[in-house]
């Protein structure tokens, strides 16, 4: 009786802080064990020892799942791995892959490196990979955005693809199941948001939207439904959402709510500014003593 071959995973680290690797290692231990038992994790520069990157580049066998962490550059004077550019390495690996997953916001959209490093050719993997290679993939490139990405999002995506061969994605390549709701959904501070009771950074109570720059109402993410370490999230500990799953991350002046004559420049998704201001005006006329008392405790 022959044993069914497990699908292979290659994890390529390009220009990265390795935050997504650290995130993967913080996954639920039983889930991570299931990952290793269900897939053949053949290469990661920090986690595997049996094969080198050169071995993977030279092999003829296909790669079932190519996971890429970090942004890409073709400039050899800027950043190289084994004396070659991340651009060349990526295209060689991509030509062998059946599925390609961008792990984190840098791989998905260029992220921090594309914004702050003065090098115009730093980009996402979607822009870097030859279009003829993309046409031969079994699926569109999947973007798992986040800085870093939630480890469970990686696992769920891999298991869905392994089981069904496809996954529903939104207009910028994110799995709908994971990014179809907002970080605001499931936030424990929603009642404060509704009654316009503002808190401060680090406080256990109060909304962080009006003066602390929280992007929860505009950010597609399941952080407050699939909790980090199964217990918490940024907003639950008093940290404003910084919108790291969106294509425009990182923005200027994070942790600040841009306003015009006291009116937020951006309002929550799905509602017109006029309607939002009308509702906010009504809510501010009420003082909910119970909420203010909790805020002061």
Automatic annotation (TrEMBL):
Q: Does the keyword Iron apply?
A: yes
A Pfam family (short name) is: NiFe_hyd_SSU_C
Sorted alphabetically, the keyword list is: 3Fe-4S, 4Fe-4S, Iron, Iron-sulfur, Metal-binding, Oxidoreductase, Signal
Which parts of the sequence belong to the Cytochrome-c3 hydrogenase C-terminal domain?
179-252
The GO biological-process annotations, alphabetized, read as:
anaerobic respiration
Q: Where in the cell is it found?
A: Cell envelope
Asked if the record carries the keyword Calcium, the reply is: no
Q: GO CC annotations?
A: [Ni-Fe] hydrogenase complex; cell envelope; ferredoxin hydrogenase complex; membrane
The entry marks the following residues as binding [4Fe-4S] cluster 1, namely 17, 106, 147
Ligand binding ([4Fe-4S] cluster 2): 184, 187, 207, 214
State one molecular function term (GO).
electron transfer activity
Residues annotated as binding [3Fe-4S] cluster? 223, 241, 244
Q: List residues of the NADH:ubiquinone oxidoreductase-like 20kDa subunit domain.
A: 17-160
PANTHER family recorded for this chain?
A: HYDROGENASE SMALL SUBUNIT (PTHR30013:SF5), NIFE / NIFESE HYDROGENASE SMALL SUBUNIT FAMILY MEMBER (PTHR30013)
- Indicate the quaternary assembly: Heterodimer of a large and a small subunit.
Q: What is this protein called?
A: [Ni-Fe] hydrogenase, small subunit
């Amino acid at each position: 009786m022959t044993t069914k071959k497990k699908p292979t995973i290659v994890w390529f680290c390009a220009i990265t802080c390795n935050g997504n690797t650290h995130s993967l290692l913080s996954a639920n231990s039983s889930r991570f064990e299931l990952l290793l038992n269900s897939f053949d994790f053949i290469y990661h520069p920090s986690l595997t020892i049996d094969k080198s990157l050169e071995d993977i580049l030279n092999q003829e066998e296909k790669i079932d799942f190519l996971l890429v962490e970090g942004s890409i550059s073709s400039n050899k004077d800027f950043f190289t791995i084994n004396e070659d550019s991340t651009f060349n390495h990526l295209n060689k690996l991509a030509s062998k892959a059946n599925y390609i997953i961008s792990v984190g916001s840098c791989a998905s959209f260029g992220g921090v490196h594309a914004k702050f490093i003065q090098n115009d050719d730093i980009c996402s993997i979607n822009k870097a990979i030859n279009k003829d290679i993309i046409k031969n993939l079994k699926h569109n490139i999947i973007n798992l955005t986040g800085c870093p990405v939630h480890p469970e999002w990686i696992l769920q995506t891999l298991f869905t693809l392994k089981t069904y061969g496809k996954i529903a994605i939104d207009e910028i390549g994110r799995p709908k199941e994971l990014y179809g709701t907002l970080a605001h959904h499931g936030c424990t501070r929603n009642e404060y948001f509704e009654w316009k009771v503002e808190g401060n950074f680090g406080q256990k109570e109060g909304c962080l939207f009006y003066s602390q720059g929280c992007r929860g109402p505009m950010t597609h993410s399941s952080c407050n439904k699939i909790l980090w370490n199964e217990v918490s999230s940024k907003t639950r500990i008093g940290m404003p959402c910084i919108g790291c799953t969106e294509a425009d991350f990182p923005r200027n002046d994070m942790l600040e709510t841009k306003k015009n004559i006291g009116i937020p420049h951006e309002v929550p998704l799905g509602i017109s500014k006029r309607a939002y201001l009308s509702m906010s005006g009504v809510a501010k006329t009420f003082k909910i003593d119970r909420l203010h008392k909790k805020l002061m405790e």
